[in-house]
From TrEMBL:
<feature type="domain" description="MYND-type">
    <location>
        <begin position="29"/>
        <end position="66"/>
    </location>
</feature>
<keyword id="KW-0863">Zinc-finger</keyword>
<dbReference type="GO" id="GO:0008270">
    <property type="term" value="F:zinc ion binding"/>
</dbReference>
<dbReference type="InterPro" id="IPR011990">
    <property type="entry name" value="TPR-like_helical_dom_sf"/>
</dbReference>
<feature type="compositionally biased region" description="Polar residues">
    <location>
        <begin position="363"/>
        <end position="387"/>
    </location>
</feature>
<dbReference type="InterPro" id="IPR053248">
    <property type="entry name" value="Zinc_finger_MYND_domain"/>
</dbReference>
<dbReference type="Pfam" id="PF01753">
    <property type="entry name" value="zf-MYND"/>
</dbReference>
<feature type="region of interest" description="Disordered">
    <location>
        <begin position="360"/>
        <end position="387"/>
    </location>
</feature>
<protein>
    <recommendedName>
        <fullName>MYND-type domain-containing protein</fullName>
    </recommendedName>
</protein>
<dbReference type="InterPro" id="IPR002893">
    <property type="entry name" value="Znf_MYND"/>
</dbReference>
<keyword id="KW-0862">Zinc</keyword>
<keyword id="KW-0479">Metal-binding</keyword>
Length: 387
């Protein structure tokens, strides 16, 4: 954590005085549930055992949800039965909002490889889901899977297996479980099996992941192609580069089609990026495409068409994410690769994107330049000079 974050956290903590608590009420740490001695002074409803856990929670999720926790953790004074019902309904809505926010934050941090930082958000998602749906509901499974994935990334495989067991048991007890949940379950089982070097078992789970994801989202969907990407990584571990390359090509084509559609709707102004693409998906796309590009560029037999496809994807992605400079960087790489492939239909779309990115970058530069009339210090603007 940087010094700015640490100073911000230190300004939000206060000592928890035991004598100030109601009789019989013991405050617990937000992260480890041990006795708490510190309190967030901003929301005053979140407690910690020490400064390390407060800092970890602040970076992980608390900064984003601090004020949202107040209405669901503040005791309501006694009112009429109808007021209690309204309060209960409002609390459920607040908790459902927290589930979505914390889940998205945890997923984004996982894609960024920030496994330790993802834990507070995943734990908050699980607690809120338990409060809303109960301790055995299938709605808890996504949070269990986030916690399992984080622990796989941290190398805590025993803890990851425990969370996966809870997810599997919950799914087994749920008749007619949705294919969306089943695809998520098998994808994380595949990750766990890959980490334990059970590669054949991992491939089986990734195959099931693709099957259920195809049914839920369609064959040519970016969610489904995530399973292909993970399968390709396993085949690389097995030394089966031809199969891996074929799967990577499928992933690249799926993302290329998706980003092309997004770029078209974005430039036409019919749909904003936020309506089609959340931060977690942006991070997933960047990590996936960069990994494929790195593997392709290190291969002795480079596929120039696939290189161009992946770099064009990255150029479109960064343009849509508001970075025309990076879009130009990857656009040049894409154009360089595709020029080595005769009569390819990617040349014109790449050139069009580069022109659009160059115009956008120039527009940003012009906006950043100060106006000549505003060159005076603020204290001298719009003032009348006394004679």
């Amino acid at each position: 954590m940087n010094s700015v974050s640490k100073s911000k956290v230190s300004s939000l903590k206060s000592t928890l005085h035991t004598l100030a608590n109601p009789k019989g009420v013991k405050k617990q740490c937000e992260l480890c549930h041990k006795p708490a001695y510190l309190q967030c002074t901003k929301c005053r409803v979140t407690f910690y055992c020490d400064t390390d856990h407060q800092q970890a929670d602040w970076v992980g999720i608390h900064e984003k949800v601090c004020q949202l926790l107040i209405p669901i953790r503040t005791t309501m004074p006694f009112h009429s039965l109808q007021a209690d019902r309204d309060h209960h309904c409002a609390q459920i809505q607040h908790r459902q909002e927290l589930i979505e926010i914390s889940r998205a934050v945890a997923q984004k941090k996982l894609f960024e490889g920030k496994y330790q930082e993802s834990l507070p958000a995943a734990k908050l998602s699980l607690r809120c889901a338990m409060d809303v749906y109960g301790p055995s509901a299938v709605q808890l499974v996504p949070a269990y899977l986030l916690l399992a994935e984080a622990n796989v990334g941290l190398g805590s495989l025993a803890q990851a297996e425990e969370y996966m067991s809870q997810a599997e048991w919950t799914v087994m007890k749920t008749p007619n479980c949705s294919h969306t949940v089943l695809h998520q379950l098998h994808r994380n089982l595949g990750r766990l099996y890959t980490a334990t070097e059970n590669l054949e078992g991992a491939l089986l789970h990734f195959a099931n992941d693709v099957y259920y994801a195809s049914d839920a989202y369609g064959m040519n969907n970016i969610v489904t192609c995530g399973g292909y990407f993970l399968m390709a990584n396993v085949f690389i571990k097995q030394g089966k580069m031809d199969i891996a390359s074929s799967l990577y090509n499928e992933v690249a084509r799926t993302w290329h089609s998706h980003l092309t559609t997004l770029l078209k709707t974005h430039t036409e102004g019919s749909r904003t990026l936020e309506q089609s693409f959340d931060e977690a998906q942006q991070e997933e796309a960047d990590q996936m495409l960069r990994a494929m590009l790195e593997i392709q560029e290190s291969s002795p037999k480079q596929d120039k068409t696939q290189n161009a496809l992946v770099t064009h994807c990255l150029a479109m992605l960064w343009f849509l994410c508001g970075s025309p400079e990076k879009a130009l960087e990857f656009g040049r790489k894409a154009l360089q690769s595709i020029q080595l492939v005769p009569d390819h239909n990617l040349t014109e779309p790449i050139q069009s994107l580069m022109q659009l990115a160059a115009e956008t970058a120039q527009h940003h530069t012009n906006q950043a330049e100060p106006c000549p009339s505003n060159n005076l210090p603020p204290s001298q603007l719009n003032t009348k000079v006394e004679s």
